[in-house]
Amino acid sequence: MRGLPQSLFGRLLLFLAGGLIVTQLLSVGILLQDREQALYHTIGGHVAQRIGATVNLLDTLEKTERQRWAGALDLPPARVSLDLPWQTEIVPDERYHTTLFRALLRRQLGPERPFQLEIDDELPPPPPMRDRPRWLKPDRADPPMGRPDRPPRWRAHAMALGLRNFIVQVRLRDGETVTFQQVLPEEVIAWPARLLLILLILIVSVALLAGLAVRALTRPLAVLAAAAAELGRDIRRPPLDERGPLEVRRAARAFNTMQERLIRYIEDRDRILAAVSHDLKTPITRLRLRAELLDDPALREKFLADLDDMQGMAQASLDFLRGGEDSEPIAAVDLDALLESLQEDAEETGHAVGISGAAARPLRCRPLALKRCLTNLLDNALKYGQQVELAVEDAPARVNLIVRDRGPGIPEAELERVFEPFYRLEGSRSRDTGGAGLGLSIARNIARAHGGELSLRNRPQGGLEAKLELPR
């Protein structure tokens, strides 16, 4: 799937840590929502009680005393005003907080008393007494208080402060309107920093523990994968440690058992191949001696040629069955010196082989097997392409050895089939024109025995390119 990490560790960490983080964030959201509802229920009940008590007090006072008491009660963060008109453009609000506060007010004011309510985050908080705007000044003619030119809307001074404002208008018994503006303290509405810090620490801790747990679970798989890759290069590598959880021990035990069986199979195969090779050489040698006793020189030459073909095919078949695996130890090889020796061998037979590029450092491999692999590729290129070039591309993790020729190439549909045993593009089965059809098969087996790969492709400018990729 595009966008997902490629490694098992990355995917498990993404799913596990991502799921835990999403769960924590949802929990934080639910917790903050419950906290907000609890705060508004508690604070709203207190504000409703205060408004109810104030309305009951103002109902018992004359207008002069009422104005004096309203001024005394007009203290931040709860403001009281008797001079604002009854608003008629309030938009109905059915949010949870508005419905809750309306129910609390109805309980305190009684079912018959008219009132209206607005809760808005964008309403300004009540200003200090010395900074009271004109629209909050009492409706009196004396110079200190003054009369506003016109009653402004509540939103005239709105600004986004992120606070909850309760605007309540209540009708007194004599028809006068009293306006309450209550803003919740910022420290109450603000996000609980300590709680959020604790949750952040919890999320980070969970993510780290998930990473460590996933690493501990996937590390045995990485060790098993590395051992499997190394097994292709060295079948007799040390067995895996059978430690860890039950499933890991079972996997390591199964891998070690498989390695032991492969070693026994290879040893049995080598013994069988050695016996077959010996048993084939003996009758071929006898036939060769008997052919030498023939009086007819032409017939003798035909017999000897057939015996040479038989011996060559038998040897090639045995080499293919060995699959590049033998008792040859792995050693560090100077690739540049190896390629130069192959170049000299080709030049002695009258062929030109060019070399481009160089290896930065020696390559650990089976020297004789690698030489045979390259010899087969060079022989194939020289047979069909005449002019051959060897290119070396060295990288930190891999070495690419490329054999290019200027021959006719191979049809695209046949590029993979030529690696099949005994398959030849030339159908005469003559060894003079096509060989036994095992050279490329043996070369690929040797490459794969080293943990590498051999591939063919046609060059755009003509000719064939054989690319031998070997791991460092």
How would you describe the overall organization of this protein?
With 472 residues, the chain is α+β, with helices and mostly antiparallel strands. The protein folds into 3 domains: 8-189, no CATH class; 232-322, Orthogonal Bundle (Helix Hairpins); 328-471, 2-Layer Sandwich (Heat Shock Protein 90), CATH 3.30.565.10. 50% of the residues lie in helices and 13% in strands. The chain is built from 10 helices and 11 strands. The protein has helices at residues 8-59, 63-73, 96-109, 186-189, 193-231, 246-292, 297-322, 335-348, 367-385, 439-449, and strands at 78-81, 115-120, 165-171, 177-183, 331-333, 353-356, 363-365, 388-394, 398-405, 453-458, 464-471. The strands form 3 sheets. A 5-stranded mixed β-sheet has the order 6-8-9-11-10. Strand 8 (388-394) and strand 9 form a beta hairpin. Helix 9 (367-385) packs antiparallel against helix 10. It is rod-shaped. It starts with 7 loop residues before the first helix and ends with a strand.
SSE topology sketch:
Elements: H1 8-59, H2 63-73, E1 78-81, H3 96-109, E2 115-120, E3 165-171, E4 177-183, H4 186-189, H5 193-231, H6 246-292, H7 297-322, E5 331-333, H8 335-348, E6 353-356, E7 363-365, H9 367-385, E8 388-394, E9 398-405, H10 439-449, E10 453-458, E11 464-471
